[in-house]
């Protein structure tokens, strides 16, 4: 927000004029960019098919023919559709050796085989093409609003031209990010079209799982009670059942964060090398572990909220009160059950500690935090603390379950409680991890991860073995 | 923190010496800067009116006359007040072509019409002036302490000199940030004097609103009960009333985040163009939406805490107990009211979900997070999730209200409960938004936002329509 | 996560080839780096003692003798142990003027007196040594996984070579961070070996303190009740006692964040100058204040969770119920104690506000947040809000205590409750701070902090007094 604020002075009247920049295309984005450039002290000249029409041009800028405009500047911003690039070919000569800035975007990912910038570069071999500004919105150029638009990805094969463009980006109060050669253009053009690509699978999976558990619980608790006991517990679907879904999904997702690491370890042990690629599904899985973990944290957070409001709920208060009244009327006071006290306190405490570590993991996965720790620290938190969190949350669920086992009505229609399903994967992960840390298994695995191979082709001259290395959990 | 740590080795004894840097002014900041430069392997020479006095100079540095000092280095750091710059004019010749680094600050924002650096540049036309180091504190230079001081804004018209200075900044373990030409000097000099400029209005407004609701509630609940029923509920001002203020303020502020977007949309529809400026108050409002939202989140967070402690409060426990006892003595057990159960669970659940999404919004507005998402993702979260949050929180309040309507004593002295006020703006925003997403209204609006105009002056040659664009909510 | 994603396209087949890069050493890291370089369009040639063995070389790369490899490229990456560097001396001639990239790490901090890179530079005086890539893991090079590995620290004495290497780093999709001259090599080599260096003392101290309080509380509550009253409260160790440890440790740690600032102020007042160094223990202490504060926040967070689950605990529910039943059976209803209501509400509210501000402090200490505020804002939050937090939390504890004093069994075995210990340091800090803000003390202190000295050696020509300055709290 300071940034936004700090740009304002730039808008004030400027004594000196900077170089002239030419913009092809008087469309919305071309106009917005020109507007901002003028603001920041550049002279702007537009190249247009119809120069006479200059109604919407930011004042201070001029509109002339493409040729005239191109002659007036070394930097030409091509703010036209890829479809219109063709007209540039007629300008080969006047554009020779000049910097062409491609700002275009496509309508959908991988719309064309090659990126617009590479297409332009191929069309104009004598000009220096730089990709930039495509992630910036016309609106934010005018108002300097969105944080999300501060970054401007820049790429190009000619470093000098790239540097020139990055200087312009900076003086507009934006942050240039050098993505290297023009090869990066495709990814840069795809970037603004993505919608949380890495989050898709984790979120779909968790929603599907939630739906399944919801239906299962409705049958088990609502329908059962209505049919068998003629009791109306439909209102369970508001809090009681969600508060069963959340912990179960959270625990399963958390376990799924560490399961691929286990698979990888087994695969490496079995193959006796780390130099054969994992199957794609495993690679995919490993790449979205962070997202899996954060979705799990979200569910855990909801579980905590749902749990903490329990004593506020009218239904719960009514149940407690009627229990007290029932004692009062039957003239008895149930004694304190020490084991009960141990039990309830124990699994609640385990849950609290698990959630606490979970939040810690979440914080360290914030970009600014994870960038400020080194590899060893990141691994320590994400691996050791991660497994500790998984263990605590699993114990929490086991404890909760243990308690349930005590009371009678645990298996309506022989349907086990959902928490039992939630325990399967976590237990598998923890047991397997337990075996993997046995020295007899850990030693060869570590060796393999350090590049050693069961049937070595040669003795490595220099195995730079101090380099940080991946472990099953990271 | 690693960074702090990582600077230490630099302080160790250094084999090679770097270039010589000259500092004019032996004041506190001049000394601190020199101290650090010596630490990092530069030779430092001070220029002073009174060279013989070198008591406080960091050891290793020398003090000579201004002229002698200037001759020994190409980079002269001017660590003196703007008021003292005049003495530099006599050094025009010796400083010709050299880099003058202006590190000065002012006492208040816009103290002078021009920035100190521009003033210096104007006074010394033959030298290259670079603005830097003004955001760094003398203390952090000596101890390398504060995160807040890592960034050093640098600006100047001569790129070579700027690069030289940025290299020095880097080797001091600080992070240079190129702000472009010397035009940015004014904003850089104003920067360290600001105190949360964008936060002023949101915070004042919320505090004012809180005060009003506080007084209103005191009259309605405390005074009324004392006067009419002779009951002492003064202790309500500690938690009960704050827990009415927080949700109300939070909801109103959240609605105010989206109201300006609605106004903007209507204005654009009415004018049929996006190219006429909004009134200033609307621009101002739109620029502090993020701050409004975060203040709202703070209030919501307090509301959650105040609510969760309800069952711990002695007064509440007492009320619950006496209700039970009253049943016990009258020998009855009030039956479970299914509708009551639905009700209490429903509005609590809505609140939980609303708060959950609200926290999500808050997290995505962290700089490091919002920088790592693209425009489309940022808009998705801030706009769609934002409106969903507003809808959920409004429903939560309506639900809460619905419950209240049931009990009798809702209108002491005909004063409606505060939550009723809190519903006005959110409902207006939601209703208007509901109309704005009608195709018949949405289509022209989108067109306008893409640069289309009702009375077009010309046909845009190339409307780069794939560029991300502002929507009412972002 | 976008980043990870955005690297993928780079891996696709590439039309143009970039320059040739030579890698000495076919160890794990050498191979991984080569693999990635080939991916990104570089031609890679390995230098090896045994060229014929090229089994594990990434396809596309070739293996030849060291001499041949060195001749084919201007950039040679030395992926061998420091121990093997000696063989390079025989290549003095062929490596003359070329860039040697040292990627090595050591096994423990300060393993050698000089850094590997400086050692290499000293051995190869005619080559340009650049330190880079040592913080990157072989694994992340192959999979592009970890956020923690995005940053690549680069340092070297020759800027041109450094720029070349940084360009390569960028095109691998990593973020180069220029750390200046080769002097920084030692810190860069130590970096990946650190494990939260600044966190060690705060964490050890808090764990020690927790242990002491735990034992003390076990004796006071569990053992005492078992011995004297023959009651089994062993289950207190699960939640009740932890919920005594957390607030106490949190409050003490928070006070310890501000205590060193008080010491510093007194020391400066006593010495009448800021230019004599603090004792090392004080410097150390001041440098880990941020960590102290965050550990305190963690304990406070646990305290909040432990407190909010109170009404859910079976033991608590049992106690409440039996209290109600006891009234029911004795046919009485205890009246509402207004003072009791005031009391319980007051200290709870103080706790909520304290925790709220504490969370605010925690958020502002996130790297990305603290980098976006200026010095004045940072100081405002960390100093003023910090002291307000300390005051609120102390009042919260006093309030809680006040309540305890009421009931009889406060001193089993004459052991005072732990919260009493927790009040000592906070009260000392607050009282001293109270005196320090007396004008008569604050004025000279501020003057000293601005460089003034009681026995000045000379009149400073220009005390750049507007520069932000350290205060006792920052």
From TrEMBL, chains A, B, C:
Alphabetized UniProt keyword annotations: Copper, Endosome, FAD, Flavoprotein, Ion transport, Iron, Iron transport, Membrane, Metal-binding, Oxidoreductase, Transmembrane, Transmembrane helix, Transport
Transmembrane segments: 201-219, 248-270, 291-316, 346-363, 384-401, 413-436
Co-factor(s): heme b; FAD
InterPro entries: Fe3_Rdtase_TM_dom (IPR013130), NAD(P)-bd_dom_sf (IPR036291), P5C_Rdtase_cat_N (IPR028939), STEAP_metalloreductase (IPR051267)
Major site of localization recorded for this protein: membrane
Annotated GO MF terms: cupric reductase (NADH) activity; ferric-chelate reductase (NADPH) activity; metal ion binding
GO CC field: endosome membrane; plasma membrane
Pfam families in alphabetical order: F420_oxidored, Ferric_reduct
Signal peptide stretch: none
One GO BP: iron ion transport
Places the protein is found: Endosome membrane
Domain Pyrroline-5-carboxylate reductase catalytic N-terminal: 20-106
Domain Ferric oxidoreductase, chain residue ranges per copy: 248-393
Topological type in the membrane: Multi-pass membrane protein
Catalytic activity: 2 Fe(2+) + NADP(+) + H(+) = 2 Fe(3+) + NADPH; 2 Cu(+) + NADP(+) + H(+) = 2 Cu(2+) + NADPH
Domain of life according to the entry: Eukaryota
Family of this protein: Belongs to the STEAP family.
Name of the protein in question: Metalloreductase STEAP4
Source species taxonomy: Eukaryota, Metazoa, Chordata, Craniata, Vertebrata
């Amino acid at each position: 927000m300071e940034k936004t604020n700090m740009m304002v002075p730039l808008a004030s009247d400027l004594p000196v004029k900077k170089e002239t920049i030419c913009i092809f295309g008087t469309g919305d984005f071309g106009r917005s960019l020109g507007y901002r450039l003028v603001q920041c002290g550049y002279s702007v000249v537009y190249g247009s098919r119809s120069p006479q029409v200059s109604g919407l041009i930011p004042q201070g800028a001029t509109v002339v023919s493409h040729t005239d405009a191109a002659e007036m500047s070394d930097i030409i911003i091509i703010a036209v559709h890829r479809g219109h690039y063709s007209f540039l070919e007629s300008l080969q000569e006047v554009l020779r050796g000049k910097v062409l800035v491609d700002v275009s975007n496509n309508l959908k990912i991988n719309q064309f085989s090659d990126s617009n910038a590479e297409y332009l570069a191929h069309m104009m071999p004598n000009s220096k093409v730089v990709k930039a500004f495509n992630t910036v919105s016309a609106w934010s150029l005018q108002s300097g609003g969105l944080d999300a638009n501060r970054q401007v990805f820049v790429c190009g094969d000619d470093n000098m031209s790239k540097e020139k463009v990055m200087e312009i980006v900076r003086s507009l109060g934006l942050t240039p990010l050098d993505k290297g050669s023009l090869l990066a253009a495709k990814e840069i053009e795809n970037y603004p079209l993505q919608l949380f690509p890495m989050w898709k699978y984790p979120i779909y999976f968790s929603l599907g799982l939630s739906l399944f558990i919801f239906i299962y619980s409705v049958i088990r608790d609502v329908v059962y009670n209505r049919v068998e006991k003629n009791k109306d517990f439909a209102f369970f679907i508001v809090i009681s059942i969600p508060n069963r879904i959340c912990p179960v999904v959270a625990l399963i997702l958390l376990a799924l964060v560490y399961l691929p690491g286990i698979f990888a370890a087994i695969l490496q042990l079995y193959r006796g090398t780390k130099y054969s690629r994992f199957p794609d599904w495993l690679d995919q899985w490993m790449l979205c572990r962070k997202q899996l973990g954060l979705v799990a944290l979200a569910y855990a957070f909801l579980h905590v909220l749902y749990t903490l409001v329990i004593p506020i709920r009218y239904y719960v208060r009514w149940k407690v009160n009627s229990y007290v009244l029932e004692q009062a009327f039957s003239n008895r006071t149930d004694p304190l059950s020490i084991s009960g006290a141990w039990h309830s306190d124990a699994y609640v405490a385990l849950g609290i500690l698990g959630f606490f570590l979970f939040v810690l993991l979440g914080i360290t996965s914030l970009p600014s935090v994870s960038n400020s720790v080194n590899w060893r620290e990141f691994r320590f938190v994400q691996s050791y603390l991660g497994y500790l969190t998984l263990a605590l949350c699993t114990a929490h669920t086991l404890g909760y379950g243990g308690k349930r086992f005590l009371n009678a009505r645990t298996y309506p229609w022989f349907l086990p409680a959902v928490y039992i399903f939630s325990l399967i994967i976590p237990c598998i992960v923890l047991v397997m991890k337990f075996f993997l840390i046995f020295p007899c298994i850990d030693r060869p695995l570590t060796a393999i991860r350090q590049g050693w191979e069961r049937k070595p082709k040669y003795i490595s001259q220099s195995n730079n073995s101090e380099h940080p290395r991946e472990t099953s959990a990271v």
